[in-house]
């Protein structure tokens, strides 16, 4: 049974993952978020789930939240994402935790080819620079990480994806949040999966110059 700490637990992918965990696994979940009241009802209605209040820039609260956990799943965002990455790595070191799943984004290695790559870089701007810096903090650490680089996210209720490795060209333009959530749950059940890897994730056959809805 995996004990999973979810950082940024009210994020859209995180909430999908929480429902998959609760419905299909016996994992114990600790939900870490700002304003924990937002997930109080979900936590109260599931015996293996607790919600704790915390900001991921607060290293001491992070350390306390990591006690007894097997895996940390970070579903974070924001222009201070690099600082959040540093705080998470610092707290994991302090608590001697090793397994981290980190949601990042496409384009952090300039790995998106062609016109879509150019468009993506232009539209995302500093966001990519910040996410690349955060990913570097994780990759430079000794943690057993998986960095997930999703394509542009959709809310389609489907699990349909393919994976590219670091060093390969990114494929496709879109992927569902549901697919990313399923990958996270699968890693928690089998922690050797994608160990110390940075994976691109896209829906097959969605190549184009932009995501279909642009
Ligand atoms: N949109 C796309 O097409 C796309 C594509 C690839 C990757 N991504 C990235 O994938 C990631 C996950 O996506 P998503 O849809 O699940 O994102 P999301 O709904 O925006 O979730 C991000 C979460 O991070 C939390 N957070 C930010 N700063 C925090 C802090 N200091 N302390 C605690 N929590 C903090 C937010 O908390 P609050 O609820 O308290 O604000 C939010 O719930 C994001 O980083 C996103 O940028 C997006």
From TrEMBL:
Output the superkingdom of the source species.
Bacteria
Which InterPro entries does this entry report, sorted A to Z?
NAD(P)-bd_dom, NAD(P)-bd_dom_sf
Database matches in Pfam families: NAD_binding_10
Domain NAD(P)-binding per the UniProt entry, residue ranges: 8-191
Which residues lie within the region annotated Disordered? 195-214
Q: Which PANTHER family match?
A: FLAVIN REDUCTASE-RELATED, UPF0659 PROTEIN YMR090W
Protein name, UniProt field: NAD-dependent dehydratase
């Amino acid at each position: 049974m995996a004990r999973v700490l979810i950082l940024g637990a009210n994020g859209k992918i995180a909430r999908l993952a929480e429902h998959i965990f609760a419905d299909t696994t016996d994992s114990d979940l600790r939900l870490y978020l700002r304003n924990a009241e937002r997930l109080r009802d979900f936590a109260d209605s599931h015996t293996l789930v607790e919600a704790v209040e915390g900001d991921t820039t607060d290293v001491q609260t992070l350390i306390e939240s990591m006690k007894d956990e097997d895996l940390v799943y970070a579903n974070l965002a924001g222009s201070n994402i690099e600082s959040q990455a540093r705080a998470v790595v610092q707290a994991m070191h302090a608590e001697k935790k090793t397994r981290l799943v980190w949601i990042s984004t496409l384009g952090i290695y300039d790995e998106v080819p062609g016109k879509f790559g150019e468009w993506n870089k232009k539209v995302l701007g500093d966001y990519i620079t910040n996410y690349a810096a955060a990913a570097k903090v994780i990759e430079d650490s000794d943690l057993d990480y998986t960095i997930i680089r999703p394509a542009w996210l959709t809310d389609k209720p489907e699990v349909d994806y393919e994976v590219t490795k670091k060093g390969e060209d990114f494929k496709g333009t879109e992927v569902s949040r549901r697919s990313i959530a399923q990958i996270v749950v699968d890693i928690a059940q089998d922690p050797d999966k994608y160990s110390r890897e940075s994976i691109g994730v896209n829906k097959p056959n969605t190549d184009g110059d932009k995501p279909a809805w642009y």
